[in-house]
Amino acid sequence: MRIAIFPGSFDPFTVGHADIVNRSLSLFDKVVIGIGKNSLKQSIFPVENRLQHIRKVFKDEPRVAVEIYTGLTVDFAREQNAQFILRGIRCVADFEYERNMAEANKQLAGVETIILYTRPEYAHISSTLVRDLYQHGQDITPYLA
Ligand code: PNS
Questions:
Q1: 28, 44, 62, 109: which could join 4 in a potential S-S bond, CB 3.0 to 4.6 Å?
Q2: Contact, 10 vs 110, CB < 8 A?
Q3: Which of 39, 4, 33, 16 is nearest to 142 (CA)?
Q4: Tens digit of pLDDT per residue, the chain (145 long)?
Q5: Domain hosting residue 112, numbered range
Q6: 90 carries an active-site annotation
Q7: Residue 82 neighbours by CB under 8 Å, 6+ apart
Q8: Which protein residue's CA is at the shortest distance from atom 22 of ligand 1?
């Protein structure tokens, strides 16, 4: 069975994230979305709310599970018996970060990272942008999955 984890802070989970997960289901038998902690980012949406929101998005898709994890992403992958880490890349600015993370995770635990490119229509949407709009009182529902 091909199992992937899809790790991220998902603060919040966007239409772009949901699209990556849906498209990845043609590659994997099961995808476990892991809500982790990026030590460089201060979250604004409570992690429990993020969990409930993402579970609701995939309530009719039995091949997708959602969990919160602490610690290293490779340890979460091991716990989930996942051979793969799934990540999305929107633009060239994401590339270095993703490459370094994939390399580190490969060295730490031999886990392969599989990258899908974000659809062009979602390429400008990031959780950081959505948080910013939210904090300035804008309606963010068009960006949420
Ligand atoms: O959506 P993000 O904020 O880019 O997700 C980053 C995340 C949570 C996947 C990354 O920060 C992470 O893997 N954190 C857990 C700690 C860890 O494993 N660090 C080493 C990564 S090379």
A1: 28
A2: no
A3: 16
A4: 999 999 999 999 999 999 999 999 999 999 999 999 999 999 999 999 999 999 999 999 999 999 999 999 999 999 999 999 999 999 999 999 999 999 999 999 999 999 999 999 999 999 999 999 999 999 999 999 9
A5: 3-143
A6: yes
A7: 3, 4, 5, 32, 111
A8: 101
Cβ of 36 less than 6 Å from ligand 1: yes
Domain CATH for 36: 3.40.50.620
Distance 37 CA to ligand 1 centre (A): 6
Q: Hey, is 72 helix, strand or coil?
A: coil
Compute, in angstroms, the gap from residue 72 CA to the centroid of ligand 1: 8
Distance 143 CA to ligand 1 centre (A): 22
For the CA of 73, the nearest atom of ligand 1: 18
Amino acid at 40: L
